[in-house]
Amino acid sequence: EAEVAQSPRYKITEKSQAVAFWCDPISGHATLYWYRQILGQGPELLVQFQDESVVDDSQLPKDRFSAERLKGVDSTLKIQPAELGDSAMYLCASTLTTGRVNEQFFGPGTRLTVL
Amino acid sequence: DAKTTQPTSMDCAEGRAANLPCNHSTISGNEYVYWYRQIHSQGPQYIIHGLKNNETNEMASLIITEDRKSSTLILPHATLRDTAVYYCIVGGTNAGKSTFGDGTTLTVKP
């Protein structure tokens, strides 16, 4: 069964350092989402892509976070510089497309710890 | 998008039906109800969705009230592996814009 791949699974970094997370969605899925999940809370949408274009990044802290999906396939989420409050699980999800009802398929996530 | 209200936690005996409620009193006419679950340390998993009619699949049943202000997810024969956080979210076809909330922690006990 096809799955959303994410790497690394775990990342420990010091504050003020740069970190990057990678996501490879299910083949053929045009829509890709990045979420942040703080321990004990539900996922919060950070950014949504439709192919290579950003559809929604209203909740993305743009002063330190950036996301790209250059060829409309895999995607990278970057934080620079990392802050203590960025410690969380970062989840990637994909769907076939928007505009119709489709379930999101989530990856296993990257757990970030900022020291 | 409409917000949802779910109980913080619930227990269920193994083999019994688990009924998880969700209130979404501000849902609009074109918004769907989606259910996901998240087993510890894994990404969320889609379970089921519905608009107006009750829905059933191999995982669960979704019962939506006639006024659509609330719904119930039913796991007919809960197993220990169903222990997870269950999220009810409401939104349009772009489910990603919907708010997950904090969900219900379901604990299935032997």
Structure description:
The complex is a heterodimer of chains A (115) and B (110). With 115 residues, chain A is mainly β. Helices cover 0% and strands 48% of the residues of chain A. Chain A contains no helices and 11 strands. Chain A starts with a strand and ends with a strand. In chain B, the strands form 2 sheets. A 5-stranded mixed β-sheet of chain B has the order 1-9-8-3-4, with no helix packed on it. Chain B has 110 residues and is an all-beta fold. Chain A binds chain B through residues 4, 31, 33, 40-45, 48, 56, 91, 93, 95, 98-109, and chain B through 32, 34, 36, 42-46, 49, 85, 87, 93-97, 99-103.
Keywords:
heterodimer, A: 115 residues, mainly beta, four-stranded antiparallel β-sheet, 48% strand, B: 110 residues, 0% helix, globular
Please work out how many helical segments of chain A DSSP would assign. 0
Q: In this structure, how is the largest beta sheet of chain A organized?
A: 7 strands, mixed
Order of strands side by side in the largest beta sheet of chain B? 1-9-8-3-4
Mean pLDDT of chain B: 91
Biggest β-sheet of chain B, characterized? 5 strands, mixed
Instruction: Return the string of H and E elements of chain A.
Output: EEEEEEEEEEE
Number of strands of chain A: 11
Beginning-to-end CA distance, first to last residue of chain B: 38 Å
Spatial gap, N to C terminus of chain A: 37 Å
Structural class of chain A: mainly beta
Gross geometry of chain B = globular
Strand coverage percent of chain B: over 45%
Q: Which stretches of chain B of 5+ consecutive residues score pLDDT under 50?
A: none
Q: Supply Rg of chain B.
A: 13 Å
Number of strands of chain B: 9
Unreliable runs of chain A: none
Concise overview:
The complex is a heterodimer of chains A (115) and B (110). Chain A is mostly beta strands and 115 residues long.
Q: How do the helices and strands line up, and which of them pair or pack?
A:
The complex is a heterodimer of chains A (115) and B (110).
Chain A: E1 5-7, E2 10-13, E3 19-24, E4 31-37, E5 44-50, E6 53-56, E7 65-68, E8 75-79, E9 88-95, E10 105-106, E11 110-114
Parallel strand pairs in A: 2-11
Antiparallel strand pairs in A: 1-3, 3-8, 4-5, 4-9, 5-6, 7-8, 9-10, 9-11
Chain B: E1 9-13, E2 18-23, E3 32-38, E4 45-50, E5 55-56, E6 61-64, E7 70-75, E8 84-91, E9 104-109
